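Figure S4 source data
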Amino acid sequence: MKRLFFIFILLALIGYGIFLTRSRAGDLAVVQIEGGIFDAVAVIRQLEGLGKSPEVKAVVLRVDSPGGSVGASQEIHESVKRLAGKKKVVASLGSVAASGGYYVSLPAHRIFAAPGTVTGSIGVRMEYLNVEELMRWARVHEETLKSGRWKDAGSAVRPMDPEERSYLEGILKKMHAQFKMAVGEGRHLPADKVEALSEGQLFTGEEALSLGLIDEIGNLQVAIEAAARMAGIEKEPRVFYPEREGWIDRIFGSVSLRSVVSGLDAFRPGFFFMMKPTI
């Protein structure tokens, strides 16, 4: 009896999951990219799935992000680029779509923003925290064993020497060059103009339009209507918002084993002293 009850519950959950999946189907998807961009896996999985769906004709990226890590932004950028080769992709910039938030929008066929959207910030930074004086005050002594000259570059427990600073700045310059190349390619802008816009400046949506960084002023609904026209959807588009989590996550809640493990991982030794380039 218990076994039959368990099977019944399992089948009910599977049926409900199929219902949730189908109920979120349509011919125009709105993918939301919000907050800091530090993990690209969920967004990439979502975009790849939409790219394989024969029902989906167009995708609108709703971006509201101040940026994040260079690697994650580049991964999503590449996934959007792949998707744009299969479907019509339009980016709709929300309150803020700067740095990495702008980076991921670049492969879209058209980019929309509000007049007051904060965008741009085409640059890379690396934060450095030095706690040497604090450790000396606390009478804590740290020793590092390393296998090479640059293995502890940017250590938080000692001063940064000029050669080390030059080494790290060189890495940032390479990443910045990659960002500028993506802007030039995505917006069809000459190198000299991209260079002038790539000092980390912030632009309003109106300024971005005049500079060629976006295509049109308009809100999310305007972007959806444009994407539908571009995809040849003649009737009212069936808009849906695909969720990043699977149906099991939607049934049992957003807390997953992966999120718990990721949270614990944040407290591993040395985490807060790691230098991560961000855009």
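Figure S5 source data
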Amino acid sequence: MSVKYIGLDVHQGTTVAAVVDGRGKLVMESIVETKASTLLEFLHGLRGELHVTLEEGTWAAWLHDVLQPHVQELIICDPRKNKYLQQGSQNDKIESRKLAQLLRAGLLSPVYHGESGLRLLRELVRSYLTLTQDATRLMNRIKAVYRGRGIPCASQKVFNPHHRDEWLKKLREPGLRRRAERLYQQLDQLQPLRQQARREMLEESRRHTANRWLKEIPYVGSIRAAQLIALLQTPHRFRTKRQLWAYSGLAVRVQSSADYRFAHGHLQRTRNADTVRGLNDNRNPQLKYLFKSIAQSASLRPGPWHDFTRDFCKKA
């Protein structure tokens, strides 16, 4: 049976497909409409074992569900690692060809798309996090209005509806006061939505067995447990815990040069090779923030981690 490697460059209206055979020869190119029926019709017109790839993006989750049952292999690849695509001339056809060649050579880094049973929880967590970010942004804008007129506003009373008139009277300019009132109105409309998203997220997270296990970890409450389940989905996606730390942005990245030398005719490893250390920047930022917040909460309250961080700071 012949093997075909298909690279898809997906856009809102059209998708450019390049088909490469097992020898790396381009056998077909096509531009089809970005619709499920059209894409499946294109795949059904090809014979042999089909291996398909496309880059992670807005359409990736939808296309994963549409194409997965109809192909032998589907890889949603990480565009940040496709340096080869950035070299030379670039257009839709060239990028689809390069994707097909990278797939054939096995040089793509897949992005995990699985655990369909967690899709509802993932969307609820995303809604809660988005509304939380929007509320934080509005609070910062409100404080910026007062700080712009030299009015200290470190207290949370500036957001309290019972103290709102008192704070608005401090703004002497009518236009500035009107602006603050509009920001308060936006915040009042956003807070109930955020609370509703929080309730739905927690209710859905209780249906998963891992929720009870995660909450047994100190300083991992209901909200953090729900976020961990949604972001990690399953621990089996990581081969070892090293991959988990790298995905969380907590792995140490080491760059070195001149690792070996010849001494007396024998090859030896250099002990004092120049190294550059730093945390892995190819990470999930939400997961890194979650682990950091857990560690910060533990360091501020009595317990083993609090004692460890205190002793470590003393030694430093």
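The longest helix spans residues 174-205. DSSP finds eleven helices and nine strands in the chain.
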